[in-house]
Design a protein that fits this description.
The complex is a heterodimer of chains A (601) and B (382). With 601 residues, chain A is of the alpha+beta class. Chain A is 26% helix and 34% strand. In chain A, helix 4 links the parallel strand 4 and strand 5. Chain B has 382 residues and is α/β, with parallel strands linked by helices. Chain B folds into 2 domains: 249 residues, pyruvate-formate lyase- activating enzyme (Alpha-Beta Horseshoe); 73 residues, Arc Repressor Mutant, subunit A, CATH 1.10.10.920. The two termini of chain B are 28 Å apart. The chains are: A alpha+beta (601), B alpha/beta (382). The interface between A and B is large, with 28 and 49 residues.
Chain lengths: 601, 382
């Protein structure tokens, strides 16, 4: 299996917008090359996490080796690197692309090119990939292959004369895709006799195997029992297993130049495996490491607190377990006046945040309160000190602040002409600055600069809603800029609830404050006393709402036989209250925290 | 020594009502002789350890004590009077339903010494009575009330309000008719879905929809207004009386006094050897009778009530009364000063909101406070 000569290896990834058929195509390729029997095939083999299957997205990069007997009679080793499709995981896309020589660009001919496709295809071009356009869903009545061909040429500048026309769903012309891989993608280059250089593409924790490392060998050979060295840290490990994914894990003797596979080496945690690092032989090391990647940086932060304060340790353990597998998220203990002990957690984006929260509740059975997500602000104090602010509650007194900078993004939005007006209204509401607006057929492509904090809460949901689902969106970070920002405090019965405070542009502070007070009014159930909800900037109240007292709550019959039972009920209620988060004697349901901050039009 | 109230439980009914979660059982026929004997045995056992306490009240509850033989009632009253030290105006109450079986026994109960009758009327509307699973008509109820008025010095009856679909005008009209029939006391209960009842199952399936809280509150306010107009005042959350006609037996519970409970499933609070004990009896009637026959009593568990528990019990009962709680009595009964039993923040807020009134002598819940007493207690009790 490892005897495959380098010129019979092809490494590729698939670039596609969500729902354009990437996973279905991957499944067909596995089936067509016999990687799995029909019985073993379940829909979308590569999305192995339950959440990935549910949301139809790929979160972690996956890889699979296909063995293909080509029309020329020769056998080829095709290595597919599946890549995440969501903008939050753009970083993982870039490292997957770095492990390949070519990409399949899959476009749904009933839809056309979307913003995410564009962002990823540009990354592939930057990585010097050979790109093969694949026109999918040509069997559907709404298919417009000619229009989409033109669009690919106009927008991306790719020659589409050799585009492969397929239907991944029906399996039509899958062989055409396999032949294109063999004939059009370059073989990897590498020297089997040079010192080992292997790129650490990804790593994860497997409960039976420990840390599994996904590698791409550039030069040399990687074999069992070899002593390898991580070039960035100098740490040395002995390789225990070498293998490939078919997609089942299959042990092999070694991996040669151009090959993609996995190793295990008794490594304790994923944190010891720096993605982008170079592995080399400890005895005959390479002199220069491969060019690595920039580390991923969390851009969205929020506090996570257990609903039941007794669950704090369980939360710590669970976060530790998740981090074993996902080094891109960060957590540090913090305390909140309102919520007690919890963790400040950093994420790659809002989807990443939601996924981690969902996994904590599903896989670890934790009830959590999430505070308002915040971006990382740069606070320039009057004394010249600059600090990064992850938590609105930590904002210094305005008199100590010289100015504040906030992170901006460059966003690409593609939308049918009919919805452009509403999309532009939305981006303007969110303080967007237009940098480009072009048309491709009846689709507009708007390029905007937007403050990240305007996008973090619900921009994607709103965009989908104003465009009836037709707009697509992608972004990358685009530096920091000074802005007139204020902290808005939310007070419940005059007590500030630190977990609900947030930072907004001064021009929008009042509107946001009002909207949150109105939301909280609906989200907080009536209680014994009426509840005053206020939004304030400093000492100035900018919005208020009142929740009336509950109207009737008393046991109708209570006599001698009921006393013990009623007393026990009362004691149980008190015990429950002790564990509930109270704010100025008000119980705020945990759902209120995140829901309150989602902004409606 | 704490004066005593005596509760006697008769666990049998003609049929189980779908809203009721009391300890009631249907048996045909009921072994009257066996249960009469067992009740008398258990009463004697209880009296033996209590001594000749001052007795302020006897209450026959159920189940349906209206289905007891009047001779059994007479024997139990005679026993109690002999075994304890009854006050001159001893209140003796018996609960009955306006069924034909029971109507024939009313004179017998009066002759046995019962001086206060409590009738389970529940509604004055035949459709509502059928929906509540009652085995009598409105006309029968009215006839029974008239007969009872002629026989008994004191008379109370029950109605259920906040029934499905009930509006404030409907209820006012029904209540006015009831008040015209009333003597000196009424119990007016909001319909409550109790777990394990027939209504609970219907409610779960969405086949029984209760009025919302705002409607329930409006019905409750209307109840208070109508009753007061007829001279009956809300002395407790669900009980209305002419001044002086309050149920002394039930006041004993709400004032957290001593009471002995005999019969299947009966509970008691008894000061024995300087300690307040919670007593309870075997619930299943035949098993209870068996225990009594073997041991002289059907007690299954007796536990001392701790000071914090006493404080919570005294609070949750006492705040149901419009008179509220006497701070001195609270401290001597529970061993905890009233203010130490309360969350000071909630107390201040509730006083400010008009739910509670605290003066040098008493703490009481206002009508607005009593309307929200469960939520108030959860925040107030320490």
């Amino acid at each position: 299996m490892t005897d495959t000569p380098t010129d019979h290896i092809r490494n590729f990834s698939i670039i596609a917008h969500i729902d354009h058929g990437k996973s279905t195509l991957a499944d067909r390729l596995i089936q067509a090359t016999g990687g799995l029997t029909a019985r073993e095939m379940t829909e979308q083999v590569l999305d192995s996490m339950e959440l990935e299957k549910e949301r139809g997205i790929t979160i972690k990069a996956q890889t699979v080796r296909l063995t293909y007997l080509a029309r020329n009679g020769e056998s080829y080793e095709l290595n597919l690197m599946d890549t995440p499709g969501h903008v939050d995981f753009a970083y993982e896309v870039s490292r997957s692309l770095a492990a390949c020589e070519g990409s399949l660009l899959v476009v749904d001919v009933t839809q056309g090119v979307e913003a995410q496709t564009l962002a990823n295809v540009y990354q592939a071009i930057e990585a010097n990939h050979e790109i093969v356009p694949i026109l999918n869903k040509i069997d559907l009545p709404a298919a417009e292959p000619e229009r989409v061909r033109q669009q690919i040429e106009d927008v991306i500048g790719l020659d589409t004369s050799d585009a492969v026309m397929i239907s991944a769903k029906t399996g039509l012309n899958i062989e055409g895709v396999l032949e294109a891989l063999v004939n059009r993608l370059p073989a990897p280059k590498g020297d089997a006799n040079a010192p080992l250089k292997a790129l650490l593409v990804d790593s994860w924790y497997d409960q039976y195997l420990g840390v599994v490392i996904l590698v791409r060998v550039k030069d040399g050979r990687l074999r069992k029992a070899q002593r390898i060295r991580m070039m960035s840290t100098g740490a040395v490990h002995t390789v225990e297993q070498v293998g490939v994914f078919t997609p089942k894990m299959l042990p092999v003797d070694d991996l040669g130049p151009g090959e993609i596979g996995f190793i295990t080496a008794a490594i304790k945690t994923v944190a010891d495996c720096k993605v982008g690092d170079t592995l080399t032989d400890d005895r005959t090391p390479a002199t220069e490491p491969l060019p690595g990647f920039k580390p991923s940086i969390p851009v969205v932060w929020c506090g996570l607190y257990p609903v039941d304060a007794d669950d704090f340790e369980k939360l710590r353990e669970s976060l530790g377990k998740l981090r074993l597998n996902d080094a891109s998220f960060h957590y540090d203990p913090e305390t909140s006046a309102a919520l007690g002990f919890g963790f400040r957690c950093g994420f790659l984006g809002l989807l990443h945040l939601e996924i981690i929260q969902e996994r904590l509740s599903r896989e670890f059975d934790l009830d959590l309160i999430a505070t308002a997500p915040s971006v990382v602000y740069r606070v320039h104090r009057t004394n010249g000190i600059v600090e990064e602010l992850h938590n609105p509650a930590d904002m210094p007194d305005p008199s100590l602040i010289d100015h504040i900078e906030e992170p901006w993004i460059k966003a690409t939005i593609m939308v049918p002409d009919d919805y452009l007006g509403s999309v532009l209204t939305l981006t303007n509401e969110r303080r967007g600055q237009q940098s480009d607006l072009t048309y491709v057929g009846n689709r507009a492509m708007a390029v905007y600069r937007l403050p990240l904090n305007e996008v973090v809460f619900d921009f994607y949901d709103r965009l989908k809603s104003v465009s009836r689902g037709y707009a697509s969106f992608d972004y990358h970070m685009d530096g920091y800029a000074e802005s007139d920002l204020v902290k808005i405090s939310i007070l419940v019965n005059q007590d500030p609830v630190d977990a609900l405070s947030f930072i907004a542009h001064r021009a929008q502070a009042e509107k946001r404050g009002r909207s949150i007070c109105e939301k909280l009014k609906d989200l907080i159930p009536k209680q014994l006393f009426k509840i005053a909800i206020q939004a304030a900037i400093g000492g100035r109240v900018i919005a208020r709402e009142t929740i009336g007292a509950l109207s009737k709550d008393v046991t109708a019959k209570c006599y001698g036989g009921d006393i013990s039972r009623k007393r026990k009920l009362l004691e149980k209620q008190k015990e429950g209250k002790k564990r509930m988060r109270q704010f100025g004697k008000v119980e705020i349901p945990q759902t209120a925290f995140l829901a309150a901050l989602k902004m409606d039009a | 020594m704490e004066p005593l109230a005596l509760y006697i439980h008769w666990p049998f009914c003609l049929a189980k009502c779908p809203y009721c979660d009391f300890n009631s059982h249907v048996r045909a026929p009921v072994d009257q002789a066996r249960f009469a004997a067992a009740l008398r045995t258990e009463l004697a056992w209880e009296a033996a350890r209590l001594g000749r306490r001052r007795l302020v009240s006897i209450f026959f509850g159920g189940g349906t004590p209206g289905l007891m033989e009047p001779a059994t009632v007479a024997a139990l009253i005679a026993d109690a009077i002999r075994l304890f030290d009854p006050v001159a105006d001893l209140e003796i109450t018996l609960e009955a339903n306006p069924t034909s079986v029971e109507a024939g026994r009313l004179a017998g109960f009066r002759a046995a010494g019962v001086n206060r009758l409590s009738l389970g009327v529940q509604a004055l509307d035949d459709a509502a009575l059928a929906a509540l699973g009652r085995r009598h008509s409105a006309a029968q109820a009215i006839a029974a009330l008239e007969a009872a008025r002629a026989l008994f010095p004191r008379l109370s009856f029950d109605l259920i309000t906040a029934r499905p679909g009930q509006t404030v005008p409907d209820w006012r009209a029904e209540l006015r008719r009831a008040l015209a029939l009333a003597a000196d006391h009424l119990s007016l209960y909001q319909l409550t879905i109790e777990p394990g009842t027939g209504f609970a199952a219907l409610h779960r399936k969405g086949q029984l929809v209760l009025p919302d809280d705002d409607t329930a509150a409006a019905l409750y306010d209307a109840t208070g207004e109508e009753a007061a107009r007829a001279g009956l005042f809300a002395y407790e959350v669900s009980n209305y009386a002419r001044p002086g006609a309050e149920s002394r037996h039930n006041l004993q519970y709400w004032r957290y006094g001593d009471y002995a409970g005999i019969g299947p499933g009966a509970h008691g609070r008894l000061t024995l050897g300087g300690t307040l004990r919670a007593t309870c009896r075997q619930r299943a009637p035949e098993a209870w009778a068996g225990l009594v026959e073997r041991h002289g009593h059907g007690s299954t568990e007796e536990t001392p009530v701790t000071a914090p528990e006493r404080a919570r019990e005294a609070l949750l009962m006492g705040l149901r009364l419009s008179e509220g709680i006497d701070a001195a009595r609270f401290a001597s009964r529970t061993g905890i000063a009233l203010d130490d039993a309360l969350d000071p923040g909630t107390l201040a807020r509730a006083v400010e909101e008009g739910y509670l009134v605290r003066d040098a002598v008493r703490l009481r819940a206002t009508p607005e406070g009593r309307k929200r007493l469960d939520a108030l207690l959860a925040a107030l009790a320490r």
